[in-house]
Amino acid sequence: MTTISLSHLTFGYDGQGDLLFDDASFDLDTSWRLGLVGRNGRGKTTLLKLLQGKLPYQGRLTVPVPLNYFPQPIEDEDQLTLYAMQAISEAEQWQLERELNLLAVDPDVLWRPYASLSGGEQTKVRLALLFTDTTHFALIDEPTNHLDAASRAKVAAYLKLKQGFIVVSHDRHFLDAVCDHTLAIDKRKISLTQGNYSVYEAAKKQQDAAELAENAKLKKDIGRLRETAAEKGRWAATREKDKYGDPHKRGSGAIGDTGFIGARAARVMQKRKNLEHRMDKAIDDKSHLLQNIEEVAPLTIATQPDHHEVYLSVSELTLAYDGKPLFEPLSFDLHRGERLAIVGPNGSGKSSLMAALLGQFTGEVQGTVVLKSSVTISQVRQLYPDNRGLLKDFAANRQLDLEAFLNNLRKLGLERNAFATPIEQLSMGQQKKVELAKSLATPANLLIWDEPVNYLDLFNQDQLTASILAYQPTMLFVEHDQDFIAKTATRVVPLKPLNR
Predict the structure, then answer these.
(1) Which of the residue ranges 81-95, 126-140, 227-241 would you say has the lowest mean pLDDT?
(2) What is the CATH number of domain 3-203?
């Protein structure tokens, strides 16, 4: 058995406040299929970098195996895929073909330019490259982004054939299918669970429930002890006056048995001190609770329902490039209050459809798209290179309610240092939160969202789901996450591709 060992590991980025890892210690067996989970910004990718020796740290870190990392940087995306892969590795063609066959990918993709592959094909090719090297331990960082449900299932089945890796993902179904151990970077501790994500989640919910119950009991006890101690303090103070008598009556000799009164008052004061000691202990016990419970506040959505019953009508719509249709003719109406999910495999034309609905498609269009002229739209896009500059200026340039915009970012868990960092310098997860918060703060009748939960952690996904169900906005969205679709969509429209 080979073990990766971390002992008293301490690390934090300069100028970013709290430490990401503070005296962390744990061991990882390299035969495990380990899921690495945690909220955005908690240090998952940082941990992978530490394992690779890319960052300085305090403590001891023992990695007795060579490591390979996904996603690998591609040096020249215009090369044929085979040559692009061989430029960054020593993989043989037959090795790549073997792994691609296991992933149910036609090996002919090796003879196409890498840049021409779909996002899903690029992901699978790089995963195939990762596992051509059987001597290295694999670190896999978010392989499911942009993959359709069928591709996620194929990648999960592929990884189950492999022994020994660490995978970061925000797809709970994928983690359940793949992992036999889970390492969670929680709010105040790192926990290692034998089992998949659902096993970890059930254990955490049980622990959280127990802590909440204990916290409620201690809170009640502290209140009762505080009131009892106060009553005894008031009684002792009154008896202390009795010991010397009422100063207005001293001249008449109205002085009590000072010895008896004093002794009784002393006993009451001691009881009060005992109560205060018990109260201090209860408060100390309480201080150790709830530190690891995630606080996920509801988001606000600036939805503004329109008076029309039907917002959007699509009739016999087909889209094509160079005369090649992307999908079968499509017809649907979007009614006020509906949340319509567009689903289909990678490359079926979902993003092209979104562009066509917004009048931005550059290919050939047949059929009709009728959007009511009074309907206003708020978008979440897959790509947002124009999101730049400081958050305050970004909001001003887009006429956003600054308070609503920043409040949603805080609720989404954007780290404090990010508020003073230009958007283009933020991580992909942080940039996604900016794009989402922008849409949430934009007054609109209709939300058109393209893969809204990509890069969002599981807590943010649940947070977004809860807010959608609370506000009931009219939506049309593309998404591959089956859990999000099942919980939020009122209707599903499948795209049936013609090029497959």
Answers:
(1) 227-241
(2) 3.40.50.300
Taking the C-alpha atoms of residue 214 and residue 203, their distance in angstroms, rounded to an integer, is 17
Distance CA 170, CA 341 (A): 20
CB-count exposure of residue 9 (10 Å: 0-12, 13-18, 19+): buried
Within 10 angstroms of residue 227's Cβ, the number of other Cβ atoms is: 11
- Phi-psi label, residue 260: left if phi above 0, alpha if psi -120 to 50, beta otherwise: alpha
CA dist 33 to 28, 131, 162, 388, Å? 10, 14, 8, 38
- Quick: pLDDT tens for 342-386: 998 877 888 889 999 999 988 899 999 999 988 999 999 988 999
Where are the chain's structural domains? 3-203, 205-287, 310-494
Name the nearest CA neighbour of 152 among 461, 451, 477. Answer: 451
The Cα–Cα gap between 500 and 485 comes to 24
Task: With both helix axes pointing from N to C terminus, report the angle between 93-102 and 119-130 in degrees, rounded to the nearest 10.
Answer: 120
State the average pLDDT over residues 49-54. Answer: 95
Edge-to-edge strand list for the sheet holding 377-380: 377-380, 446-450, 474-478, 339-343, 491-494
Q: What is the pLDDT of residues 91-112, one digit of tens each?
A: 999 999 999 999 999 999 999 9
User: Who's near 257: CB < 8 A, 6+ residues apart?
Assistant: none
Helix, strand, or coil (residue 24) = strand
Among residues 348, 337, 369, which one has the least CA distance to residue 474?
A: 337
Determine contact, residues 27/61, Cβ cutoff 8 Å.
Answer: no
Question: Could you tell me the end-to-end alpha-carbon distance of the chain, in angstroms, rounded to an integer?
Answer: 45
Q: How far apart are CA 64 and CA 177, in angstroms?
A: 28
Q: CA-CA distance, 32 to 179, in Å (whole number)? A: 8
Do strands 137-141 and 165-168 pair parallel, antiparallel, or not at all (unpaired)? parallel
The tens digit of pLDDT for each residue in 173-191 reads 999 999 999 999 987 789 9
Tens digit of each residue's pLDDT (9 = 90 or more) over 296-328: 788 999 999 888 899 999 999 999 988 889 899
Model pTM score: 0.69
Q: What is the Cα–Cα distance from 237 to 228, expressed in whole angstroms? A: 14
The vertex-285 CA angle with 284 and 286, nearest 5°, equals: 90
Indicate whether 258 pLDDT > 80.
no
Fold of domain 310-494:
Rossmann fold (3.40.50)
- State residue 383's pLDDT score: 85
Query: For residue 94, what are the contacts with CB-CB under 8 A and spacing of at least 6?
Result: none
Task: Count the residues in the chain.
Answer: 500
Query: Looking at beta carbons, which pairs linking 40-43 to residues 24 or more positions away fall under 8 Å?
Result: 40/413, 40/427, 40/429, 40/430, 40/433, 40/455, 40/456, 40/457, 40/460, 41/413, 41/414, 41/415, 41/427, 41/429, 41/430, 42/185, 42/186, 43/11, 43/185
